[in-house]
Amino acid sequence: MAFVQPLQSNPRPGGRGLPAIGFLLLVQVAIKLAILGYDLSRSGVNYLPAALGVPVDARYWVPAQVSFTGYDTALVVTALVLAFGAVNGRRWARPGAVAVLAVNGYGSATALITVLLLNESILRLDIVDMLLTATLLVDVVLALVVVLIAAVGREQSAPALPPFPSPYPPAAPGPYGPAPSATVPGPYGPARTGYRPPQPPAGAPGAGYGFPPPPPVPPAPPMPPSV
């Protein structure tokens, strides 16, 4: 009994690193939602217009090192779409994630530098401001990691395997070439083309039965003359 190698699914070309990128995008979303949760805990639902980018009364604004604004709302929505595409193996999620997180990482890096310049010592901040400032550093790290994963993942996946050879050798042609015959479908699919013997001409003896015609009968000898 011939052993047939099972079929193997090849990875989608260019799909390396997409699950990791999707996970990092979800981490970025979780960080932004945590900041939003802190702002809502300080000002309540009155802070929601500011979170959506709508001007809000100054008394509802949360004085902190980092706040959730309309920019963060757009970032969260875009990151969720890219994370969904990355988890499902969509290659367009890779350049999208690089662009979005690179822009966010650059903004976080400039904000972090500003915080460090305005404060003589980062250790003098309270625990909440230190955690909010740490999110800026995490944004920068996430951007760098995603760029690195995207650069490595651009390598093509393993090439597709060649088709598996048939366990049976191909049939050799006969000495007179393949014989034409009609294929009659059987109860289990189309029947194999078989061999048909040469047919005699129509009207000849044996025609229609698949047998060669009989040999010609020699003429009878002449009768001797009667006495």
Mean pLDDT: 76
What is the overall silhouette? rod-shaped
Helicity, as a percent range: 40-55%
Distance between the termini: 81 Å
Summed up, the helix count is 5
What is the gyration radius calculated from CA atoms?
41 Å
Order of helices and strands: HHHHHEE
The largest beta-sheet arranges its strands as 1-2
Question: Hey, roughly how much beta strand do the residues contain?
Answer: under 5%
Low-confidence regions: 6-11
Largest sheet, strands/sense/barrel: 2 strands, antiparallel
The number of strands is 2
Q: Pairing-aware structural class of the strands and helices?
A: mainly alpha
Structure description:
With 227 residues, the protein is mainly alpha-helical. It has a domain at 18-152. It is built from 5 helices and 2 strands; from the N terminus they run H-H-H-H-H-E-E. The protein has helices at residues 18-43, 48-51, 70-87, 93-118, 127-153, and strands spanning 185-186, 189-190. Strands 1-2 form a two-stranded antiparallel ribbon. Helix 3 packs antiparallel against helix 4 (93-118). The longest helix has 27 residues, at 127-153. It is rod-shaped, with a radius of gyration of 41 Å. Residues 6-11 have low confidence and may be disordered.
